[in-house]
Amino acid sequence: MTVLVTGASGFVGGAIVRGLARRGVPVRAMVRDAASAPEGVEVAVADLGDTTALARAVTGVRAVVHAAALLGEFGRPAEFFAVNVAGTDRLAQEAAAAGVARFVFIGSPSALMAPDGGDQLGIDETVPYPSRFLNSYCETKAVAEQLVLAADAPGFTTCSLRPRAVWGPGDRRGPIVQILAKLRAGRLPELSGGREVLASLCYIDHLVDAVALALVAENIGGRAYFVADAEPVSVWPTLDAVARRFGLAGPGVTVPAPVLGAGLSVIETLWRIPAVAQRWTPPLSRYAVALVTRSATYDLSRAERELGYRPTVGFADGLDEFHRWVDEVGGLDRLLEDA
């Protein structure tokens, strides 16, 4: 069964390609630039906006793992909809027309994040989508997921995996790396407000395992699954521990909520100016702040029951592996040059 993996030049897509290949699964890696393709597998060069190229990419495959997406805390809504919604819909339609039997969408719990949302502790997949979304990324991941799940039909099984804050060896631009960059620059204030914030993370090996399981599990059509590490972490002590591990100072000065809110409003106003948005990365966003100030943990029962999902790597062991990999690529400074 050949599997097409989109977004294969990225951290998540590339790890899925390598993980499936190690399991003996024939893989076709879809990339926009052949030079960025993983080695040792078949390559398809295609863009989500090119129907003809997508039709070629899905020809002869039995399953699609759709990991490609436009990420970002800021950006034009039209661009997010063009890639994350229209691109996903186009790919799913071409896959179904080509006789692909299974479509696994890499979704995100961000699809459940509202502007005024609070903690989400131990939630399961019955939690509905909000009526308003925190940003365009959140909204388009929700809309795309709904399109994918609604496309489920006899002979075309669709499902969505929802990992949060995927991290581990190979991660060059993900949440952990972005936090390390902010810590090194002294740009991460202490935002907990004195309360504990819990978060479910997803080690990359766990996501790869979930994808492999979703490609063969039965009776999963039209369903979403939270995918995460076995135990949530306490965000702010964990950030301190990660900082120490890499020889950095922990989060800096405490920022009161009213000051933070006012600062975010100014940032959002400035970054609506195209000349600003094109030249600089914003220091903070409401989305980034929400990730470290709102508790978000997930009930994994459905994935365990229906996929056979069993996360096995603890945070400490995963951090050891990540630190070892960072040393292998030249250390933190080298890693953060591209972050």
UniProtKB/TrEMBL annotation:
InterPro entries: 3Beta_OHSteriod_DH/Estase, NAD(P)-bd_dom_sf, NAD(P)-dependent_oxidoreduct
Pfam families: 3Beta_HSD (PF01073)
Protein name, UniProt field: NAD-dependent epimerase/dehydratase family protein
Organism: Nocardia lasii
Coiled coil (residue ranges): none
Span of domain 3-beta hydroxysteroid dehydrogenase/isomerase: 4-251
